[in-house]
């Protein structure tokens, strides 16, 4: 009996978007219009690359970025939920699949001492260059028309499950916890015994209910949450079963 918990990061584990939170480091805490308007749909990672160049050009150093990022608030109830998962690791494998980046997630999880809760983090690779600039790359290449070009979360999930099967690990149930439009693709991959947990009022919930209205509902169960305490209540029931 083992359960796989799959978490998105921004607006799910933390209550903000880590990529926009970093703008607090910019001069006057904002980006110039030209830079802000340079984003093209599906090309967020390239856009963030330009943001990091701007911060570097303005003398924003690693330690200042780190101080800023570790003030990002966790979602209501999330600290308790992650604590509960950490105490029950024999029952739960736990991964993050996120369109943020490895540096931000690592800083935030380590500062709160939650890095041990997660078995793997799948996100855009990032590092500081020799000149002290933060750089970010696309996570992978894929052929999914529904997803941003740097990351298809379904592909990540499928490859992870295949690798686990080779190791002899299969899961009684997958619990997918997320909020965004890019979480729909992996949710549509889930089977009827699995459960999707979209955050209330966010894009994923709206897209799932739109599918149901179009009479092509997702195959898995759906449980909407607004506080991570509700997720914890569900997991406690699973554990008792």
From TrEMBL:
NCBIfam families cross-referenced by the UniProt entry: DKMTPPase-SF (TIGR01489), HAD-SF-IB (TIGR01488)
Keywords recorded for this protein, A-Z: Hydrolase, Magnesium, Metal-binding
Superkingdom per UniProt: Eukaryota
PANTHER family reported for this sequence: PHOSPHATASE, ORPHAN 1, 2, PYRIDOXAL PHOSPHATE PHOSPHATASE PHOSPHO2
Keyword Nucleus: no
Signal peptide boundaries: none
One protein family per Pfam: Put_Phosphatase
Protein name per its UniProtKB record: PHOP2 phosphatase
UniProt gene name: Phospho2
Residues annotated to bind Mg(2+): 8, 10, 179
Matches recorded under SUPFAM superfamilies: HAD-like
Lineage, broadest ranks: Eukaryota, Metazoa, Chordata, Craniata, Vertebrata
Needed cofactors: Mg(2+)
Residues at the active site: 8 (nucleophile), 10 (proton donor)
Positions annotated to bind substrate: 19, 99
